[in-house]
Each structure stands twice: as C-alpha cells, then as structure tokens.
Design a protein that fits this description.
The protein is α/β, with parallel strands linked by helices. The two termini are 46 Å apart. Helices cover 51% and strands 16% of the residues. The protein has 4 domains: 189 residues, MutS, DNA mismatch repair protein, Chain A, domain 3; 220 residues, Rossmann fold; 75 residues, SH3 type barrels, CATH 2.30.30; 79 residues, 2-Layer Sandwich (Ribosomal Protein S8, Chain: A, domain 1).
C-alpha cells in the first residue's frame, strides 16, 4: 500500500514506467507497463525480478531471442469466436506471424532448457498447435494475400478474369489505335474511370466512337469513352470480380471456422507474447540504468550498496556529470535514519533514491545498485514530500503535513517504510520542533522503518539518544564550501548556514549580527558539528592515503619476493649445471688415467715411454682443469645503454631489458619483475644474442599485464596438478598486482577439484578467507578468494 497515491509521482516512479513503456514494441506490452504496481507478496516479487534478470542476461550474454512480429491477436481471437464472422486476409496473416514468433521463442528456450527457468515458466504447459499455421498456410501466401489456388473455383475464376482482361485489352488497344489514326484521340493514353478502361477522345469527335461516356476533362475538351465493343467484356470482368470476392469470403469464413476451436489457445499465445514484450522492456531499461538484481529478503530490512537514482543517472549521463553512489542500511538496530546537513547537499535526493528503489524492487524491477544490496519487503510505504496545500480542503502547507503525520502515526506498523522530507517545517520552529519530535517518537514506538530529512537540532539530539534511530549527514567540504553528495551514517550534520552565507557574499556585519542572535548552546552545537565534519574529512583523507601506501607496499613486497624466487631458481640451475660439468670432467679424467695405466702396462713400464705417457696425462688434465672465469671489466659510458637495450648481469649472466636510464642506475625488467641496478654491474648485449623465449617473456609491460589481468580464473575440466600449477602462476600475479580478491571457477562435480584448490590456497598467508559464490551466480562451483 502506498500513501498518499501521488507519492509514486513525487518519487519519480511514473517517470520510470514511462521510460520502460518506450522499450515496448507492442500496445499489449505498454498496457502491462501501465499495470505495474507496488506488491508485497515475496514469491510474486521474486518471480518478476528473476524473469527480468534472466532476460537481461540473455540480452547481454546470449544469442538474441527471435522476436519477429507482435500483433494484438486477442482482438482477432475475440472476433473469430463469434459464429458467422470471418477474419480478413490481414488478420489471418497477423495471427500467422505472431504464432511463428511464439513457436520460434519456445524453440529458443527448449534449446537452452534449464538455463532460464523463470522465463521458461511463461510458456509452461502451453501447447504447440502447428495445425493453426497449416490451416492459414493453405490459403494465405507469404505476403499476407489469398493464394490464387486457395480453392479450385478461385483458381478458375482467377484464370477467367485474366483471360477476359487480356481479350478486353487487346480489343480496346485496336480501337484506340484506329482512333489515333483518324485523329479522334486526345493526347494521353488509355485510362481507368469507375474501374473501366476508357479511351481519351476529343469532345468534337465523341459521336464518332460508339460507347459509354464515363467522364470528361475539367476543360471539357476531352471525354473518356468505354467502347461499345468492350463494354460486355468489362461487364464480364466485373461479374467475375464479384464472384472472386464471394469465393474469397467463403474461403476466409471456412478458415475462421477452422480456427474457432483454437481461440482459447490463441488467447494463451497472446498472453505469452504480451508478457514477453513486457519482460523484455524491463530488461532493456535495466541495462540502460546499469541495474542488478539485489538479494531479496522476506523481512523488512534494507541495505543499499553503491545505489544510484535511476532518473538522475540518465539525466547526468546526457550532461556528462557523475552520480555519487549511496550507501545506507536499515535493520533492527537502525530502523529510522535522520538525515541532516546543508541545503542543496543531497538530503532529499538520497531519501527519494531509497524510496524509489524500494518501490521498484517491490514492483518487480531491477535497481541500479550493487548485486550485494539487500532489499526486504514492506507492507506499506508512507511518504510526505513537497508542498501539498489544498485550496479545496482549506489546508495550508503545515496543515497538510500534519494530516499526513496523523495518518502515519495511526496506521504505521513494523512493516511500514516512512519517508519524510524536511520534517517539522512550515510553522514556528519553536513549536514545530517539539511536534515533530513527538511524531518521531510515536513512529519509533511502532517499530516502523524510515528515512527522514530535517534541520531541527532537537530531532538530532533525540535521534542520538533514542534506540532504533540514528543520525546521518550529507558530507560537506567546509574548506571549499561545497557539498560532496555523500551520505554518512552515524553522526548529524550542520546546516552550514553561516558558511554558505559567507561564500555567497553576505555582508560580514550581517553574518556577525545573525550569530549574535542565536543562543550560545545552539552556536556550540553547530560549531561542534562543523569541527566534527572537518575532523572526519581529515581522517577520511588520511585513511585513503594510508590504504594507497599499504597497497604500494604490498605490491613492492610481492615483487621483491618474486624477484628473490627468480634469483634462487637461477642460482639452483647454475649450481646444477656446474655439478654436471664437474662430473663430466671427472669422468673424462678417470677415463684418461685408466687409459694411461693400461698403456703403461702394455709397454711393460718402459721408463722412457712411461715418462712420455705421464707428460701426455699431465697436459690432458691441465686442459680439463676448472678455473674461475675472469670476466673483463668494461667501462660503459652513460650513452652506450638506452631504454630498450638488452643487458647481462656481470655477476649472474642473467638477461634483462632496460626500461629507463637514471644517471648511474638502470631500471630493468626480468620478465614481469622490475629492479634497479648499477651500470657498472652490467654489460650491453646485442639484440640478436638474446633468445626469442627471453624476448617474448621479457618485453611484456607491467602496466599492460596489470590492466589485462582478469579477476577470475577458470579451471574447469583441468587435471588436479595442471589446475594447481596454473593457479600458482595466477596467484603470484594477483598478489604482485595488488588485487584484494579474485574468483576461481572450478565447477561443482564431485567437489574434488574445489577441495584441492582450497587446500592449496590455505597454505598462503596472503589469503584472508574463502567463500562460495552466491547461489544464483554459481554457488559452490565458484570460490571467492579474499587477500590481505
């Protein structure tokens, strides 16, 4: 229930309906938009929301639904239901086109069975009667006209007409040529008068051509004569035309009789098309305002995250202005939110956003807010917005407000959402404030929910001490004296009356005089609020800067850790290669010694030959001796290395690419890792000496990688060890790029891959928690990973 009824207009709901109406492609759909209303049945609201959400998903992610034609076949079916009537060619063709759309749409969803269950429910138990199409196809062609062979008699009549027209044309052409040869004919050509082919004859020669005069020109110099010779032929054609019309009526009457038993099914098809157009229009509007389906609750609660006023969003999009998102909540602890702050600071817009989005959800519409938003169901929505003074009822503005307050206090309940703009205004603040406080106390005692805007200090103090109420304010930049349009819960806001007056340029003398006239207590309260606002803004700015520094620190820490791992891996590879080389040298030396001993034995230890063999062994061992490599020291000038060159580290032989030259330092890239090294520790390497694999890995830009990094990874269908390996690489990049969370898609199945992935991620200290995706978006087939 909405009270008063004009609240829908004041909150902008009628404008929302008009916007949706523009997306409909049929009058039936527009008629359904007119019937959109505030509902309180959970199952009905949930069904409408899910239907719209599914259609939105189709429009954004699936093949388009084959919607070809929408006609109001309800009127046609109602006409066909009456005995003795017949449908026209156009009406029969409209039924045919509409049914083609119905069957194509049903086939579309049958190919996607189970993907869109709420849309499938639109045609659940709807029979597929292809016989209707067959009956129509038998007599109507693809252009919507009666087929010439719809019956044997119609085919004979059509043939006879064609033959008679041909004979008459041939005869009249002969007469016309003769008249032209005798100079009886006027300028022009054969023409039609009263459905008869006539010859234009000069008026002075009309007696020379026997026939019937059908018309004459405006000047009277030309008469149009139907020759006597073709008169009977034209009469025959006219009679055949009448016969053809009678046969067509008979055929259409027979067709209508065949369709009459299907009238109930046609009405069902009409309902399906109407609902389809209606849901489609709601989905298109949802896409336009960037809407989502919130979490729908049965209880009376409300939690909006990054919510925006849909009409303001559309208006600002055209002008290029940003819309500041709204974050607020109403629950058992905070049932009524009392919003204060400066004029033109956004209080009313915030309140209207809450009211409009609540109405939209309970009307089955998606809202421009984060999908994590939670919206409960209220039985009643009361609103007091704007000036409702009435001359007829002899009510002033304040009297109209009091009339509404009377209704609110008498009919409010724990399932009521109350919206009041500028609570208590319209009369002397000395008396208006206490009355407003009493009304607020009464509403609070009834456990109602609400959002109220005010400037009254006594209401702010009452909200600060009463259970169930909480102060909120619109953030104001008191340095630049401009509103920020951000709602902040937990504290009241100042009206900034003196500050705004000062900015406008009001005389300092007047401002000082005004300050002297307010009470000391009120001045202290307002000053305290201003100071709190200033301190809050400083804390907020410091928090943002701290978060920024922490993210930078985490990114650098992850980068250093990765770089360390990279060096450790290279170190292990070098040691392994050195060991293999040493083993090979020892193996060759042992083989050489064994051969030498064998040769000494063969020469029976001859002294001279033995000395010669020992000398050879000594030389061979000297060749295979492992010596430390003395790398030449190269002096590199600052001009020798530029950005884009490849360099090699002198102490490790690792290759890297130069990103930037900074005096004696180089900023280099080891793949996706960045580091700073001294020029004297590197040497330049020719581009052709760098392996292709290193180039491909090393030239990737950190910025490009971070920009293209997706916050989700799909591991469905992969073997366990392959999935873990890919996840390990992905996790390193997520940490390095400073992401706070990412999503792992592993599917449901038997849960083996999910368990393996979660057990693997538990070993990382960077992981703060893991949880399932929302049931509507994948459930336990998707794991959300949150990083510290």
């Amino acid at each position: 229930m909405i009270y008063p009824l004009n609240s829908l207009q004041k909150l902008g709901f009628e404008d929302v309906k008009n916007a949706i109406r523009n997306f409909c492609i049929s009058e039936m759909g527009r008629g359904m938009v007119d019937k959109i209303q505030f509902m309180s049945n959970y199952d009905q609201i949930n069904k409408f929301l899910r239907q719209t959400s599914e259609f939105k998903n189709i429009l954004e992610n699936d093949q388009p639904i084959p919607i070809q034609s929408f006609f109001d076949i309800k009127k046609i079916a109602e006409k066909a239901k009456i005995e003795g009537t017949f449908l026209s060619e156009d009406e029969a063709f409209q039924v045919y086109s509409s049914l083609q759309t119905v069957f194509a749409v049903i086939r579309y969803f049958e190919e996607r069975t189970g993907l869109y269950p709420n849309l499938e429910a639109l045609f659940e138990h709807l029979p597929i009667e292809k016989n209707i199409l067959k009956h129509i196809e038998a007599v109507i062609d693809v252009r919507g006209k009666i087929k010439p062979n719809a019956s044997r008699l119609l085919a004979e009549i059509t043939t006879a007409i064609a033959k008679a027209e041909q004979e008459a044309r041939k005869k009249i052409d002969q007469i016309y040529k003769n008249a032209q040869a005798n100079n009886w004919a006027a300028d022009g050509s054969l023409t039609v008068r009263d459905g008869r082919i006539c010859i234009p004859i000069l008026a002075e020669n009309k007696r020379k051509v026997k026939g019937f005069v059908h018309d004459e020109s405006s000047s009277g110099q030309t008469v149009f004569i139907e020759p006597e010779e073709v008169f009977s032929l034209n009469n025959k054609i006219r009679d055949l035309e009448f016969d053809k019309r009678r046969e067509i009526i008979r055929i259409l009457t027979e067709l209508t009789n065949q369709l009459r038993p299907y009238v109930p099914i046609l009405l069902s098809y009409h309902g399906f098309l109407t609902k389809l157009d209606f849901v489609r229009a709601k989905a298109l509007f949802a896409i336009k305002i960037e809407a989502n389906m919130p979490v729908l609750l049965k209880d009376a609660k409300l939690k909006l995250i990054n919510a925006k006023h849909p009409l303001l969003l559309l208006s600002h999009r055209e002008s290029g202005k940003p819309v500041v998102p709204l974050n607020m909540h109403l629950d058992d602890q905070v049932r009524i939110l009392l919003v204060s702050g400066p004029n033109a600071g956004g209080k009313s817009v915030a309140m209207k956003t809450v009211g409009l989005l609540q109405i939209m959800v309970q009307a089955g519409l998606l809202i421009p807010a984060a999908a994590e938003s939670e919206v409960g169901i209220f039985k009643q929505l009361f609103a007091d917005i704007g000036d409702d003074q009435s001359i007829e009822s002899d009510l002033s503005t304040y009297s109209a407000h009091l009339s509404k307050m009377k209704y609110f206090t008498e009919h409010a309940s724990g399932k009521t959402l109350i919206l009041i703009d500028e609570f208590g205004t319209g009369t002397d603040p000395l008396f208006g404030g206490p009355i407003a406080e009493a009304v607020l106390e009464q509403i609070n005692q009834k456990k109602s929910f609400g959002m109220i805007t005010t400037h009254y200090s006594n209401l702010k103090l009452f909200a600060n001490s009463a259970a169930g109420l909480e102060n909120a304010s619109m953030v104001f930049d008191n340095v630049n004296l401009k509103p920020m349009y951000m709602l902040e819960m937990g504290k009241p806001g100042s009206s900034y009356a003196f500050e705004i007056a000062q900015k406008i340029g009001l005389s300092p003398h007047l401002i000082a005089l005004a300050k002297s006239k307010i009470s000391v207590q009120q001045r202290k309260v307002d000053t305290l609020l201003v100071d709190l606002e200033r301190d809050k803004k400083e804390v907020f700015d410091s928090k943002i800067e701290l978060d920024k520094q922490q993210r930078k620190y985490k990114s650098l820490l992850a980068e250093n850790e990765t770089l360390k791992n990279y060096y450790e891996e290279n170190k292990r590879n070098l040691i392994r290669e050195a060991k293999l080389e040493a083993q090979q040298i020892i193996k060759n030396a042992n083989k050489l010694v064994e051969n030498t001993i064998s040769e000494i034995k063969e020469v029976k230890a001859d002294k001279v030959k033995t000395q010669a063999l020992r000398a050879q062994l000594h030389e061979a061992l000297k060749v295979n001796e492992i010596k430390p490599v003395q790398k030449p020291k190269t002096e590199i000038s600052q001009d020798e290395i530029v950005a884009g060159d490849w360099i090699k580290m002198l102490d490790s032989d690792n290759l890297a690419q130069v990103l930037e030259v900074a005096k004696d330092n180089l900023i280099v890239a080891f793949g996706e890792l960045r580091s700073v090294v001294k020029k004297k520790r590197v040497e330049k390497v020719a581009n052709k000496q760098v392996p292709k694999e290193v180039k491909r890995f090393g030239t990737s830009s950190y910025t490009d990688s971070a920009a293209s990094f997706s916050p989700e990874i799909d591991l469905r269908g992969k073997r366990g060890e392959d999935a873990v390996a890919e996840l390990e690489r992905y996790f390193d990049r997520a940490v390095m790029f400073g992401f706070s969370s990412f999503k792992v898609i592993h599917g449901k199945g038997d849960g083996i891959l999910r368990k393996l992935i979660r057990n693997y991620l538990k070993k990382y200290p960077q992981v703060s928690k893991m949880e399932d995706e929302h049931a509507d978006r994948g459930g336990d087939g998707i794991t959300y990973v949150y990083l510290k």
